[in-house]
Design a protein that fits this description.
The structure holds 2 protein chains of 2 kinds. Chain A is an alpha/beta fold. Chain A contains 11 helices and 13 strands. Chain B has one domain. Bound molecules: adenosine-5'-diphosphate and magnesium ion.
């Protein structure tokens, strides 16, 4: 459709899903751009999966519109599904078949020529580091391996958009790290990635932009830093660990420092309106204190989320 | 709900995209499954006994015009008490149910459904592919069985089947596959309706038992209820018979046994107005030509096929409306 600019791959306007009276998704708007990783984050039941299903045409919307690569998922589902890769929450494969046989079935459904399919399968399995288990039955795969097989399917499909529903849930930290690395790999290959999660902090590091869902609405949308500035206030949070003097008193004397909050034994969280790390180090050392740690604190989405809804509740 | 229908009408692309790969995969799954082995053993166990006994009896018959090969199917040997077709009348539904009861809900439970449906195919193709694969599997078993029976006949009777016997035998195969198709569609309908394969199997088997055991009783109860008034004329009596026949024909098993009777017992000249129990005695006079027999059972054949299509369509409609979250 003509109104889609060339770098927008998904465009939702007023997207709504009703289950009876319940508004599972309530008139949301968002755009996803080519080559970005977009995080759809929020607690269980916030409407993330429902939004995803509507984008794929797997459930019908009750209102609004959604465009995926210029196609309408309800009227042109085959066009959408040819170009979009989907990794469902707790993805399943045919356990009695091998990884290769599973991917072959998908390749046939995609209508790939046999020769082409075989090379794509091998390449895709290499890209997710599963090449050595290509001919093992999926019943022997761990949860993390299944998720990676799901990513391999998307790679094999050469999807322009990858939609991953809770890809890291149930994974140990190491597998999570590996999976997020593969998701970055998709982005490097030019794929736009939409990724949902109820664990905000796990995935915030890979997301270029996030939308925080709550009760079917998008509460906040933007980059992590933008949201942090909006909710937690503009400022650079840093962590200071030092000993030997009245740290709080010393730090308040530095220009730009807005707050100093103790964070456990000998540690303080300092928020300033500019980067004050050099000044802090200088002042502590000059006052005869022992500086043991000085770290830039990433704003935490968890914190953003909690603070936002606390404030929303207070306002109500 | 109006918008749903109109949206579906406007969707683009062939509903049959992807039907081939689904069919091939499901067929391979069926043919290599343990379940298939069990079903085949089951058929052989139930079929071998009546067939062997019939062959024993038929070896003593020397009349060349007596449709010997067809009688392998229909003869009711004293030692067994059940003919091969009567055995098939209940083996076929069991096999079809065994092939279909978990076809859709198992995809839900393995959480493969949304992954498969996120590939460029419609649900139509998935359901149709599964149905055709089940039917093909079933046809393979029946054809093998049929060939074994004819082969055994050839060996033990020492005469080749006549052309008309082969033709009638093939007709029987077609009817048997259509009969299996109905039960396959029924079991797939339950597999769409019910998430648990065990419950789905139970419901399909329950329906089968209902038609097998309860329906004849129920039908005659309804008829005697209708007859509570008065039977004054032959017309009244005929109307009652029609009612009884109509009720019985709601059961796929009745359609199957009527069609098979006319095909395998060429002497059959009429299929009503009698209850199936009376039918065995209704063999009179010279055999009908094959085309006449076909004409006689045309309503039964169309009934079986129409029933299959109606039940499949019901499964299709329910499946289209389901939300796929797994
Ligand atoms: N089939 C359904 N019928 C009724 N309500 C549903 C159905 N599926 C989901 N919901 C409701 O919709 C809301 C959003 O669910 P979902 O999109 O799965 O949330 P999330 O993926 O963010 O955890 C929840 O409140 C859930 O209870
Ligand atoms: Mg979800």
């Amino acid at each position: 459709m003509a109104d889609i600019s060339s770098d927008t791959v998904i465009k939702a306007r007023g997207l709504t899903k009703l289950y009876g009276r319940h508004r599972a998704v309530d008139a949301i708007d968002f755009d996803i751009r080519r080559g970005e990783i977009f995080g759809v984050l929020g607690p269980n039941g916030a409407g993330k999966t429902t939004t995803i299903l509507m984008m794929l045409g797997l459930t019908e919307r009750s209102g609004g519109s959604v465009d995926v690569l210029g196609f309408d998922p309800v009227r042109q589902p085959l066009e959408v599904k040819r170009r979009v890769g989907y990794l469902p929450d707790a993805v399943g494969f045919y356990d009695h078949l091998t990884a290769r046989q599973n991917l072959r079935y998908t390749a046939r459904l995609l209508g790939l020529p046999r020769r082409e399919a075989e090379t794509r399968i091998v390449d895709a399995m290499e890209s997710v580091k599963l090449a050595d288990v290509l001919d093992n039955r999926v019943s022997t795969f761990s949860r993390g391996m299944r998720q990676r097989l799901g990513i391999a399917e998307i790679v094999m499909k050469r999807a322009e958009v990858a939609i991953l529903d809770e890809p890291t849930s149930g994974l140990d930290p190491h597998s999570t790290f590996e999976l997020l690395e593969m998701i970055r790999g998709l982005k490097r290959a030019g794929v736009a990635v939409l990724l949902s999660s109820h664990l905000l902090d796990r995935v915030q590091s890979v997301c270029d932009r996030v939308a925080l869902f709550n009760e079917g609405r998008i509460a906040l949308m933007g980059t992590v830093v933008e949201l942090a500035n909006l909710v937690l206030g503009a400022g650079h949070p840093i962590l200071v660990e030092a000993a030997g003097l009245d740290i709080a008193g010393t730090l308040y004397g530095i220009e730009g420092v807005q707050s100093v909050v103790p964070e456990g034994e000998g540690a303080w969280r300092v928020v300033a309106d500019r980067d004050v790390r050099a000044a802090v180090a200088h002042r502590i050392v000059a006052s005869g204190g022992a500086l043991t740690r000085l770290a830039d604190l990433q704003p935490s989405l968890e914190e953003v989320y909690t603070r936002y809804f606390e404030e929303a509740r207070h306002a109500a | 709900m109006g918008s749903r229908a109109s949206l579906a009408l406007r969707r683009q692309g062939s509903p049959f995209t992807g039907i081939g790969p689904v069919l091939v995969k499901e067929l391979a799954d069926h043919l290599s499954s343990v379940r298939m082995l069990v079903l085949t053993l089951f058929v052989i166990a139930f079929g071998a006994f009546p067939v062997a006994s019939s062959l024993q009896t038929l070896r003593t018959v020397v009349d060349p015009n007596s449709f010997l090969f067809l009688r392998i199917f229909t003869l009711e040997p004293e030692q067994v008490g059940i003919s091969f077709v009567a055995a098939l009348n209940f083996i076929i539904p069991l096999m079809a149910i065994g092939l279909g009861f978990d076809s859709v809900n198992s995809e839900f439970n393995r959480r493969t459904l949304s992954r498969v449906l996120s590939q460029p195919i419609y649900r139509d193709a998935l359901l149709m592919g599964k149905f055709l694969a089940g039917l093909a599997t079933f046809a393979v078993v029946l054809v093998a069985l049929w060939l074994m029976v004819f082969g055994a006949g050839l060996l033990l009777l020492g005469v080749p089947p006549r052309g008309v016997e082969v033709a009638r035998g093939v007709g029987f195969l077609v009817v048997a596959i259509a009969y299996g198709g109905i039960w396959l569609a029924i079991s797939m309908l339950f597999s769409v309706l019910l998430r648990s394969p065990a419950t789905s199997a139970l419901c399909a088997l329950g329906l089968w038992l209902f038609f097998l055991l309860l329906w004849p009783q129920l039908a005659s109860a309804i008829v005697s209820g209708a007859a509570a008034g008065e039977i004054r004329s032959v017309e009244d009596y005929a109307a009652l018979q029609d009612l009884a026949m109509g009720l019985m024909r709601l059961s796929p098993g009745t359609l199957f046994s009527e069609a098979v009777l006319a095909l395998l017992s060429p002497e059959t000249r009429t299929l009503g107005p009698m209850l199936p129990a009376q039918m065995r005695g209704a063999i009179l006079g010279a055999p009908l030509p094959f085309d006449q027999s076909l004409l006689l059972i045309w309503p039964q054949i169309t009934g079986l096929i129409a029933g299959m299509i109606v039940v499949f369509a019901a499964a299709y409609v329910v499946f289209q409306r389901q939300e796929v979250r797994a």
